Amino acid sequence: MKIEKHTVVTVTYSLEVDGEFVEKTDKENPLTFLAGVGMMIPGFEQQLVGKETGDAYDITVLPEDGYGTTDPEAIIDLPKDVFKVDGQVQDDMLVEGNVVPLQDQNGTPFQGVILEVGEDTVKVDMNHQLAGKTLHFKGEVLEVRKATKEELDHGHVHGPGGHHH
Ligand code: ZN
Are 149 and 8 in contact (CB under 8 A)? Predict the structure, then answer.
């Protein structure tokens, strides 16, 4: 069957950005997703629609259909206190270009990149690291099947036999 909304799709992919390899999945550890529920970046899903098992694909996703454009408001100055562990500022962590783990107000973890280290503050870029980038995906469609009612209710893919993972 062809990839369309509410199918469960298994693919391999290799991602390149600016001609450089970023990440890949192979047949032993492929990517499986539920199409049409906003799980994947829009430009990836949309361009796979209509493909079927065995099809190779080679697609380019612009930033606005990928991880978004770079948001200047996501570059902020954080007090150094944020980086305290056991009451101590972790100076060895505060190096320009370092990726640091942070949490938003809801406790959801994300990563920021340190742009500049000041006296009392640290300038951190909280944009997704692939924001503003054109993404180039290549891979193969391994399997396409209809999602079960339960998968659609839950909004995610269940493993073999319909079990939760
Ligand atoms: Zn579930």
Answer: no
Please tell me the distance between residue 156's alpha carbon and the centre of ligand 1 in angstroms: 6
Q: How crowded is the C-beta side of 73, counted as CA atoms within 13 Å?
A: 0
pLDDT, tens only, 17-51 = 999 999 999 999 999 999 999 989 999 999 999 99
Phi, psi of 90 (to 5 degrees): -85, 85
State residue 82 phi and psi, 5-degree precision: -60, -30
Q: Are 123 and 116 in contact (CB under 8 A)?
A: yes
Give yes or no for a contact between 142 and 10, defined as CB atoms under 8 angstroms apart: yes
Residue 3 CA to ligand 1 center (angstroms) comes to 21
The predicted model scores a pTM of 0.78
CB environment 133-164: b (16+ within 10 A), e (fewer): bebbbebbbbebeebeeebeeeebbbeeeeee
- Ligand 1: distance of its center to the CA of 65 in Å? 27
Structure confidence by residue, pLDDT tens digits, 92-135: 889 999 998 888 788 888 889 999 999 999 999 989 889 999 99
For residues 79 and 120, is the Cβ–Cβ distance under 8 A? yes
Q: 159 CA to middle of ligand 1, Å?
A: 9
The answer to whether 65 and 130 are in contact (CB under 8 A) is: no
